[in-house]
Amino acid sequence: MTDPKNINDPIAWDQAGREYETQRDYTNAIRCFTHATELSPDYLDAWTHIAFLLIKMGLFEEAEKCKTQITRIKEKGSVETKKILNVVNVQELPQSPSSINATSIKESTTLKEMHYAGLDARFKAWIIDALCWWILLFILFIPGMLIRVIFGVNSIINAIFGFFLVFYIFIGGWMIFAWLESSHFSATPGKKIMNLHVTDPNGNRIAFSYSLIRNFIKFIPFINIISAFLMNNRPEKETIHDSIAKTRVLHDTIAEGELTNG
Predict the structure, then answer these.
(1) Are 253 and 106 in contact (CB under 8 A)?
(2) What is the largest distance, in Å, between two alpha-carbon atoms of the chain?
(3) Is 111 part of a structural domain of the chain?
(4) How many domains would you assign to the chain?
């Protein structure tokens, strides 16, 4: 994703911001939406997106400032709208870039933080990931057994087969999960099914290097058991590998994430 060619077109900046947003690159998304509001101060949709992303990133004071701008636009009468800012629900936001508007954000009176995933949801995601991993291993195991049947059992075949198993179980699983959590999915299959995704502390996609660190630490014996006891006493529910890799696991929806009425 790149910035628009026409740097003087607020609509182009708005479209670029939405594309960054779908990739969970919230920092660049906010930058693009901000450019749109600088070129067109009454661009309500851009202000709405900025407020939504600031809430996801936990920057509530900055989001409140966006409400002031939206209120100003409403009072000015440059854009007709019935509902101006407050609760942001990810699942209720329209997916079409041309359809989002201020009604995507509902009215409310309180403000709550990002919804961090707890032990129960993360454990279920881990079970699903483990099942997917072993099912794939079984599928890949069949060709190896056929080769052993066709060519017979010898030291070379055993060495190759053993190397493949070790590589898949440790290196392959490590790399695959690290790539998935740093990709635009931001989640492994289990996390995706449980509506979870991995981010940095500000809600952005994590870099592949941080994802490698995060997933490598999980292979350390007993690290997950220790993390399970620790995470419930932490406000952001982070595990040991989350703390070291500077990551967080969030629910895809922000349950009643809100801006206060002022």
Answers:
(1) no
(2) 82
(3) no
(4) 2
